[in-house]
Amino acid sequence: xxxxxxxxxxxxxxxxxxxxxxxxxxxxxxxxxxxxxxxxxxxxxxxxxxxxxxxxxxxxxxxxxxxxxxxxxxxxxxxxxxxxxx
Length: 86
Known about the structure:
The protein is mainly beta. The chain has one helix at 66-75; strands at 4-12, 18-28, 35-38, 62-64. The chain has a 4-stranded mixed β-sheet with strand order 1-2-3-4, with helices on one face.
């Protein structure tokens, strides 16, 4: 939908409490706030490791390694279609 630098993404934790995380790169692709962003709070070992997803997971967004997100940001265009497979 759009691209934003230095944003705060907001959501809800599993227990119903509010969550707010500061990110450097934010690219939402749904109207209800699901998108791509960096996730500096995740250990680097979790990216691509299915066995760690039960402990480290998102609230629906696609978390990206801080070391890779800038490269993604540079090639993504506003209003570009996004297809998510899971």
